[in-house]
Amino acid sequence: MSEHENTSGNASTGTPRSEIATLAGGCFWGVEEILRAVPGVMDTDVGYTGGWLENPTYDDTHDSKSGHAEAIRVTFDPSVLSYEELLENWFFKLHDPTTLNRQGNDRGTQYRSALFPNSPEQKATAEAVIARVNASGKWKQPVTTSIEPEATWYSAESYHQDYLRKHPGGYSCHFMRE
After folding, report:
1. What is the model's pLDDT at position 121?
2. Is the terminal CB of the chain with fewer CB neighbours within 10 Å at N or C?
3. What Cα–Cα distance (Å) separates residue 29 from each residue in 32, 33, 45, 113?
4. Mean pLDDT over all residues of the chain?
5. What separation in angstroms does the CA of 121 have from each of 4, 129, 165?
6. DSSP per residue over 116-168, as a string?
7. Environment class of 96 (CB within 10 Å of its CB; exposed 0-12, middle 13-18, buried 19+)
């Protein structure tokens, strides 16, 4: 079984099932800070995906040097939080999905809004949620969130992991919108 497939929990030990979602919504610090507290989220890892350069560094992601997005891998328990709920109730509310390659003052393709589905089911769900968000009228502009093929994941440097916990009050352009 690949690391991206669902894993079944063990009924006798009560071990929860897990699923992985790979999301890009601008600077990964703010996305991680919000999502780590969501009930059902088991773990977060910030990193880079969706580009052509192997083993990118933070510097490599800027100025379109690598094509990678700053992203987050969220390991979650689908019996508590579905992929659909993660997208609709959290991802599409914690950033502005209508600003192409930008969140707040952060600009560039590394800050794009993108989903990297790990299964055909996740892809179908992502398409349905984007259609609903677009049709909702919540945003004055169309959603620019792309659905991109699953790509190699590169964890970011250790100083980026849990960055806003290590640096309370650090910069983030992410907040929950209604």
Report:
1. 97
2. C
3. 5, 6, 10, 14
4. 89
5. 12, 12, 33
6. --SSHHHHHHHHHHHHHHHHT--SSS----EE------EEPPGGGTTHHHHST
7. buried
Phi-psi region of 106 (alpha: psi -120 to 50; beta: other; left: phi over 0): beta
The amino acid at residue 178 is E
In this prediction, residue 8 carries a pLDDT of 46
Q: What's the pLDDT score for residue 10?
A: 47
The pLDDT of residue 48:
97
177 φ, ψ to 5°?
Answer: -105, 150
Q: What share of the chain is helix, strand, coil (3-state, %, to 5)?
A: 30, 20, 50
Give the CATH number of domain 19-164. 3.30.1060.10
Q: What tokens were used for 2?
A: 């690949």
Q: Which residues contact 23 (CB under 8 A, 6 or more apart)?
A: 31, 35, 71, 72, 74, 87, 91, 114, 115, 116
Question: Residue 151's Cα: distance from chain center in Å?
Answer: 13
- From 27, 35, 69, 74, active-site residue: 27
Question: Among this protein's residues, is 173 annotated catalytic?
Answer: no
CB atoms within 10 A of CB 140: 6
Domain boundaries, the chain: 19-164
Q: Which residues of the chain have pLDDT under 70?
A: 1-15, 176
